[in-house]
């Protein structure tokens, strides 16, 4: 089954818990002299597998962030960015052209820059301007370096005064993910493998991923992106309650089209009673439309562990779906071609 994993992509999945431990040690040597109270807003710039770390960090810390914060994925910064802005640039390679563009613009506006990358031009910009740069290990596909990217932000925000870091929660998360790696690794377990079951349920179909818990809102996006890049599969995502104001009507469309869709609901104990009712009613609408629906429940006690339990099963499912699709998960030929063509154009 794993013949199409020609670059041992499996090692990035099984090694994910170690990224968390490595980042905890790495961040002990990072000195930050700023406090979040010095700034009026926070902007995180990034793209793709780097930007999702920003989404996850802001969603996770939303109840403790004392200032407006946003993630941007574009070439230009918002007009409000100024000397009172903390601008965190996320680029795993350090060479993402959109992130470099926004970083330079932020510097020109007088914002305080912090860079997180494995090197590249972003590291050079930070060194040249005497800005903090957090250097993470190189050699990973950006989407599979989420442990380094997210936990760098996790500890950085805590260091800035956003009290979110809890070592007991980190330890629980690592232990849980190590256990889940044993459950999801096809070399070790195929009989009762949830990730394999998810992959098989959406084989020759299009996954549509939903959740109704605010701190999990970026997780369906992570699943969608992983299915896109790893599995070479179209995927879609949305969140409750927003989808009840528009997307729910799409389930009344032509069955000949909708029959190719598969709903995946990401569930968590923090759903409010009202949200639970909303989801149950929505399930009725979806089932009446004869669309297959599955539910994945978070595992763990802490928010951090529950968050990453859902991220991790999605990552494994995307890998196993790639094997079913006979695709090498490491290859991103379309993205590579696009970047090559763009590099030929004038700056």
Task: Report on the architecture of this protein.
It is a single chain. The chain is α/β, with parallel strands linked by helices and 347 residues long. It is built from 13 helices and 9 strands. It is 46% helix and 14% strand. Helix 2 (16-27) packs parallel to helix 6 (146-160), helix 7 (167-184) packs parallel to helix 12 (303-324) and helix 8 crosses helix 12 (303-324).
In the sheet with the most strands, the strands line up as 2-1-3-4-5
- List segments where confidence is low: pLDDT < 50 over at least 5 consecutive residues: none
SS content category = alpha/beta
The number of distinct structural domains comes to: 2
Number of helices: 13
CATH architecture of the largest domain: 3-Layer(aba) Sandwich
Rg calculated over all Cα atoms: 20 Å
Envelope shape: globular
Query: What is the succession of H and E elements?
Result: HHEHEEHEHEHHHEHEHEHEHH
The CATH superfamily of the largest domain is identified as Glucose-6-phosphate isomerase like protein, domain 1
- In whole angstroms, how far apart are the ends? 44 Å
Here the CATH topology of the largest domain equals Rossmann fold
Question: What is the strand content?
Answer: 5-15%
Give the CATH class of the largest domain: Alpha Beta
Helix content: 40-55%
How many β-strands, per DSSP?
9
Mean pLDDT: 96
């Amino acid at each position: 089954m794993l013949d199409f994993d020609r670059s041992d992509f499996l090692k990035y999945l099984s090694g994910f818990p170690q990224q968390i431990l490595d980042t905890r040690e790495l961040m002990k040597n990072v000195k930050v002299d700023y406090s979040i109270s010095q700034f009026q807003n926070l902007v995180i710039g990034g793209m793709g597998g780097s930007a999702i770390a920003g989404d996850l960090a802001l969603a996770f810390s939303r109840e403790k962030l004392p200032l407006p914060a946003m993630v941007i994925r574009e070439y230009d910064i918002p007009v409000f960015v100024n000397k009172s802005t903390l601008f965190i640039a996320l680029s795993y390679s350090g060479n993402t052209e959109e992130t470099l563009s926004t970083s330079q613009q932020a510097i020109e506006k007088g914002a305080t820059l912090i860079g997180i990358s494995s090197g590249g031009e972003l590291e050079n910009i930070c060194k040249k301007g005497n800005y903090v740069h957090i250097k993470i290990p190189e050699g990973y596909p950006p989407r599979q370096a989420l442990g380094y990217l997210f936990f760098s932000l996790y500890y950085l925000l805590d260091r800035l005064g956003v009290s979110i870091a809890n070592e007991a929660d980190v330890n629980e998360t690592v232990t849980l993910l190590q256990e889940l790696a044993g459950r999801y690794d096809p070399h070790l377990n195929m009989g009762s493998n949830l990730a394999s079951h998810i992959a098989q349920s959406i084989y020759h179909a299009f996954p549509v991923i939903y959740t109704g818990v605010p701190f999990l809102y970026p997780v369906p996006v992570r699943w969608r992106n992983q299915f896109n890049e790893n599995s070479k599969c179209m995927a879609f995502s949305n969140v409750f309650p927003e989808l009840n104001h528009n997307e729910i009507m799409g389930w009344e469309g032509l069955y000949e089209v909708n029959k190719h869709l598969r709903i995946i609901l990401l569930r968590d104990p923090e759903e409010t009673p009202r949200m639970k009712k909303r989801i149950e009613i929505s399930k009725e609408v979806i089932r009446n439309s004869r669309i297959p629906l599955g539910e994945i429940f978070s595992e763990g006690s802490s928010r951090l562990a529950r968050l990453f339990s859902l991220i991790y099963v999605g990552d494994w499912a995307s890998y196993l779906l790639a094997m079913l699709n006979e695709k090498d998960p490491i290859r991103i030929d379309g993205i590579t071609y696009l970047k090559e063509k763009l590099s030929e154009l004038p700056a």
